[in-house]
Amino acid sequence: MKSIFRAACAVTLLASTALLPAPMLAQDRQEALPSGLQTGDETPWIYRGSDVPRDKDWLFGELDNGLRYAVRHNGVPPGQVSIRIRIDAGSLHEMDSEQGFAHLMEHLSFRESKYLGPAQAIPTWQRLGATFGSDTNAETSPTHTVYKLDLPGITPASLEESFKLLSGMMREPVLSQANVDTEVPIVLAEKRERGGAGERVELKTRQTLFAGQRLANRLPIGTEETLNAATGKALQAFHDRWYRPENTVIVVAGDTDPMELARLVEKYFGDWKGKGKRVEAPDFGDPVAPAGADPENPLGEMGVVVEPDMPRAFTYAVMRPWRPVNDTIVYNEGLLLDAVSQAIVNRRLRSRARAGGSYLEAQVYQDDVSRSTDATFVTFYPLSEDWQTPLSDVRAIIADAIAQPPTQEEIDREVAEFDIAFVSELEQKSVLAGSKLADQIVQAVDIREAVAAPETVLQVFRGMKGRLNPSEIHERTKMLFDGAVIRSVYVTPDANEATADTLRLALDQDVGADGSARLAAQTISFDDLPPVGEPGTIVSEGSLGLTGLEEIERIELGNGIKAILWPNDAEPGRVTVRVRFGAGYRAFDPKDAPYVALGEMALVGAGLGELGQEELDRITTGRKMGFDFAIEDAAFTFNAQTRSADVSDQLYLFAAKLGMPRWDENPITRAKAAANLAYDAMASSPGAVLNRDLDFLLNDNDPRFATPTPAEMNATTVAGFRRVWEPLLKQGPVEVSVFGEFDRNEVVETLRRTFGALPERTPIPASVAGWVPDFPDTDAPEVLNHRGDPNQAAAVIAWPSGGGIEELRESRQLEILTQLFNNRLMEAMREKAGASYAPQVVSEWPKDLAGGGRILAFAQLKPEDVPVFFAEAERIAVDLANTPADSDELARVTEPLRQLISRASTGNVFWLYQLEGATYDPRRIALLRTLLGDYSRTTPEAMQALAKRYFAAHKPWQLAIIPEGQSLATSTDQSVAAAKLGTATRETTVSGR
User: May I ask which residue range the UniProt record assigns to the signal sequence (predicted)?
Assistant: First the structure.
């Protein structure tokens, strides 16, 4: 079997990937070891106080100035280096007057620095092939700020340049008042877009659960008051205090020699010196029970959060002080015991809910929160205004877990689940992306723990099997629910449902232990399940016809079902299975529209053959299997990530769902309840309204794309669900794709026994097969209202495009045009106006339909900026059609796209999605050969012609979402936009329109 990357280099599509630079190896140079590298018997800094075996793939170093680093070679994806710079300063390090400064500093570091002029960071990284927002990003949490760069297509020069630029960003950002004044509106826009009911719930929850601690009132986004008062001098003081080498960890993983990575860290950060004396981090505080609280039941703060548009949610937390630990094997064994304890309780809670309990979902989880508390959280979602019954039910199940040990059968079930997870991590170690490996180190540093290789984790877990017994699990369970203080928050739409006193009273009541949710031992084996039907026949098999990848096979079964198989060893231990069938959205009668959303939620849970949801969980215990279901425009899909040992049984599950579906009532009833509970929240913000209504409106008010109202959902029935879905599972062609490490002959035989045993499929009616969604046609912007904050709004502008295979190459060029549009809109609405944090432009082109595509631009804004957005989006569209883009602007789009395709093409999923449908339409195979060039090579004239075709030929559709009680400003005068954006007014007529 060939590795994917070795094979891919033979395909015309990816010829350029063969030009990726070879890793720079240490033996090619005669240079001294980096001075800070910790070698030999020296304990690496991350393992001090730990007896966890070192992950020898990492090299660690510590410099005289206190800066620490970790570097390693990793070739996933080829040619990429992932850099993480962690500053040990987050919102908990801020003084009261500095709230939001840690996050603002993150923005300012990108704004201008020693080696980067104003607003040059984004275009500079784009020229190096990195995409802003995914390859170049940053995050600020309560405890740290992390800068992230995934640099594709590395060369020695680009790597050196990147370290130089990053060093300037960290060490010498330009914190002028002009830069602060430019960046604060962008941060305020981000705050506004995140605001509303969700943010109010988060803040009130923090204030209650973390009362008396810094975490209670320090959201990383900050406050309007402190952000508006920010000055360059104050930001410089914050930077001097916290941006120091002693507070910095640099992590680099990538496709080059780790010694070279270490040298670059030391070259650009080794002479960094902090300004002034080092300042110790403030005391984050401990959770403390109120004076006089009962030590046996230490109830503390209780909070009721009233938000009319938010679903009910109840959380109580058993809180303990957080303390640094020595990250030893014994300590990790304790964490694993805790994890098994929680899994047992959660399975019982889930079983009770599925059986028709008083709550929709409930969960117990332990977490060390922001180095502020070690807490056990209990969260559930009541089905009605009665929160006391589910609280009692949940507490009773927990009381039983505290009172009595679990059975060994329960423990063994959870142990099997953990074991397969750890085995899978080990199997896939060689294909774990460098970006994820770097993030793991950052997370370990944040929680002050070491890092372990997958083989160590599995070895420790299997070595403690003797401790995984009822007695030890019981002791750990009791410890999880023992703490210094218990606090609670109830989120409700009705202020009359609860008070802090009623919460306290309910939590103060004794509850009896309820052991009825304990799961009895019950073994189910795939060997005992009935066959799907009489095994079918293989009528043809052979190469799919992709030059250079002849081992990708096309299989046809006697009943007409087809398959694409690619056994390869590129991703050890991983197999991707995808089944496409039927007709998707177009298959539904519009009068049955509510059953579309209900099917997305409940079809899998309704079961198959002899297996209901509980049985599905049990039969897949200790196996790596999945069952994701999705509805697309022209097909339904089942998807799973599995492994070689499980792929045959995974195929059985998918085939059995088509051939012998089950129609259990409880999953359908619970899905209806979940939909109804969530519906009111869909009016709580502009973004929520977009999620609820945009597809419906863009498909010209087609009810199949609508979110059902509670009344519509309540009108559905189990019988109606079966009436709608049963024939759809039998209709239309089926294509099974299996890509990854598996036994080819075994899978072919399994296909014969599973999908080959299905009856012949019912054809898709001609009226359905030819369906193409309509594009809305309105003269004025459509206006919807939300019930969120009065300063929040959203806007969408869209143009129709196309669909289908015939013009697929043009759709790829359209992606380049879309990214040009995106860059310009980002510069206008974010960088110049500060009106929107993250405006976006996307192109949607359905391959399976003869039309229905569209280009959309959208943003969240202030209500008064909605007309400005419409005017600016139309101006950009006109300018793209009238004036060719320059070569540098094109390169900033095409190079990241080229790198994106080159990286993605080294994985199975890329090929699977590109080739799906090829058994029914061979044109997809031929079109694959030009994919890389279509996405990465173009001309200014070609972009201008596309802009004329799609922007000049059609009037755009516009949607505004504004607060209730407000009116949309009607003026879209270009001079208004020009004044807002600081640009000259431009001609709005498209040449040749």
Answer: 1-26
